[in-house]
Amino acid sequence: MISFAPRHRDSLQIRVLAPLLGVATAAALLVTAASWWFGQRSALLEMEERFASIESTVARSTFPLKSTVLESLSGLTKTQWVALDAEGNLVSATLPMDDQDIGQFKALRPLDSGWYPIRCEGARFMARAFRRVQSGYRVDGVASVAVLFPRSKVDAAARQAALFPLATGLSTIVVVCVGIWTILVGMIRRLNRLQKHVERIAQGDFDARLEDANNDELGRLSRAANVMAGQLDQLWQQVHAQQGEKLLHQISGGMAHQLRNTLTGARMAMELHQSSCPIGDQQDIDVAVDQIQQAENYIQRLLSLGAAGAGAPDAKPATITQCIDDLRSTHRPVAQHLRVKLIWDVRPETGDQWVSNGSSFCVAVSNLVLNAMQVASVVEIRVSSGRSDEQAEQCRVQVIDNGPGIDPVVADRLFEPFVTSKLEGMGLGLPLAQRCVDELGGQIDCRGRDDGTSGTIFEFFCAVKATKPK
């Protein structure tokens, strides 16, 4: 059994969702990082504005910056303040500091425009200093002031700015992934049905059909698989038919050669015997010789059945009258033996018309009549003339019987070799008749009787000429 089971990592769901999830996550992280940077940038700009406002207010102030004043300013601005003298030594501060913490402020330059990171008592700050105007004349000894903004406020602003896009991005990823997963589950289910359908076709079940009413790519692919199954079924039947024809050629060739040799010997013996018989017996011997001659022609047609496009080697033109006379004389004793009533309805205008191969015409009609006599009590043969759609002269032959009709089991394959509903039949008569009609440039068909009664009508058309073909 053919198996197309995919490995887990080759699953369509994984192959679609994994890249999508990776791209969506990367995009969400990128947006989050950008929002973090913009949030941090906004917080720093706000700090810049607050520092500029503090600097413009305090730098030119005349009140002394004592510890109580610094505490008040710290409470109002939500910042920490550090007062330094001209040498950078600590004058006063709003938070406790040791010597190591104080040493950090010596690197501060009041004229610097950047922010300097400071860590005091385990807390992180962003520091910036400004110089007081006329600091040398102030009694408090404060030459510059450092303002410390809590770093946690900057980080909080950045987190606040990044939190919303991060939450939105992740929730969007979850919703999109769930939606795509749901869609993929439906697609995978349809693909699995299509896979099983193709596996059945691969195993030779050409009658399998997959119904998918959707008009998307999978629906069209399912309908294409159905069309492929139908075409494979037709091809399979053609291969079987070709094999049957090949086998038929091999079997019929061997049998026909033996029968033809036997009949030729019998005809020669009858002709020798005819020369020594009384004149009164000549007529009976003539009939016997004629019957043997027609049997030889039939065997010759059987020899050509298996060869594609092979024509009869003794193709001789004949008139419809000659053919019908031969057929009547041939089938009269058979009909009497089987107690079948034969009715010949031959239109007068067909008598002088010529067919390209009288032997093929006789074999085609003979096979149809013999088939009908085996299942019916009354067989009517109608022969008429007319014109085709191209206004060419045609002969129309109908063989009508009152038998049980065509078996539906073989109705679609009546003209294939070895197809028969008879227990003792070989299924060669109708293929031989069709081959003969094809050689005459005609078409053959069958149907039920037009009057609704039981029985069958076999009908074929063949080209005829008003004068003898060359």
From TrEMBL:
Membrane topology term: Multi-pass membrane protein
Domain of life (superkingdom): Bacteria
Localization per record: Cell membrane
SMART domains from the UniProt entry: HAMP (SM00304), HATPase_c (SM00387), HisKA (SM00388)
Signal peptide: none
Catalysed transformations (reactions): ATP + protein L-histidine = ADP + protein N-phospho-L-histidine
A GO term from the CC aspect: plasma membrane
Residues in Histidine kinase domain copies: 254-466
Residue ranges occupied by any HAMP domain in the UniProt entry: 185-237
Family matches, as CDD domains: HAMP, HisKA
Keywords from the UniProt entry: ATP-binding, Cell membrane, Kinase, Membrane, Nucleotide-binding, Phosphoprotein, Transferase, Transmembrane, Transmembrane helix
Record-level Gene Ontology MF annotations: ATP binding; phosphorelay sensor kinase activity
Enzyme class (EC, first level): transferase
Protein name: histidine kinase
